[in-house]
Amino acid sequence: xxxxxxxxxxxxxxxxxxFILFLIIYWRSGNAGFPxxxxxxINLKSLLKATIQAAEMxxxxxxxxxxxxxxxxxxGKTLEGVNDPVTDADYASHCAMYYSLKNTFEKLTVVSEEHxxxxxxxxxxxxxxxxxxxxxNSIIDYLNDELVYMKDVTVWIxxxxxxxxxxxxxxxxxxxxxxxxxxxxxxxxxxxxxxxPRTYWAWFTKKPSAxxxxxxxxxxNKEHPRVVISRSHPGKVEEIAKTSFGPKTTVSMxxxxxxxxxxxxxxxxxxxxxxxxxxxxxxxxxxxxxxxxHGKMSTIKGESIDYSADSNVKVxxxxxxxxxxxxxxxSKLPLELDxxx
Length: 341
Prior knowledge:
Elements: H1 11-28, E1 41-43, H2 44-65, E2 73-77, E3 83-86, H3 88-104, E4 109-112, E5 147-149, E6 153-161, H4 163-167, E7 175-182, E8 185-193, E9 198-203, E10 207-208, E11 226-230, H5 237-245, E12 250-254, H6 257-265, E13 271-274, E14 278-279, H7 280-292, E15 296-299, E16 314-315, E17 319-322, H8 326-332
Helix pairs in contact: 2-3, 6-7
């Protein structure tokens, strides 16, 4: 009886087995950041609910602060010589927003405009209930869960946008904002108006909030665009807008980056133009919202903004926001706005 023969090796099977073993070893070594614990992952639907609640909690602190002495202090002056104030309401809103998020998601990276005062008990904030239904936002419960790596997520918060106007009683401009960025890309944006009260939110590639208006595109608006610029940082932006977009351009001033972006989203204005330096916590929420409704925020050069935690918090060189015809308006602007005051 002959048991002799030739052993044939399936090269593809060996390669596949070896590759699988390599992946297992690589993941176990931690080099791929493979999640070993549940807390290494975060559900974006839960984070959307959390950021909505955080922004609204901050809004309540803003309202409460308005009922007593504001204790106004100054962070200094802007490049245009305008006072940059901060109040107790800014700090109270920061505490509510920052620590409610951190206490709910311990490993979450949160970047805030403000910082807590030492010994204030600021960190004693309740955890957020990410499972409960949010009034007026039942649509969220019908969205699919989406898990991402916690390490890739950065939340940017602005506890009180338009502080100067808040101290002047111009409450229509005041908002609290939260934004979720993944690997530097804004995905979820929340803008809350404490004095209305009203909250807008959007989850890019998913849904905007039900109260987000549908705005029709009007080609003729390019002939007489409505432009909104900063009330506290106007510089020479009005002149630039009219020179770039034509003599029929109308320019209005308003406060708060969140307010101005939402006015473009809502169709009140065609363009939001900003020429001086601006911080990312002012922009991130609006950036996520405008892109969800198929608009765009970019630098004057057309570059996207990186919202990674380790990136520079300041954006220089100008900002352009449109709901329609972004490339058209960008092509009309000068490439450099640095130094415009």
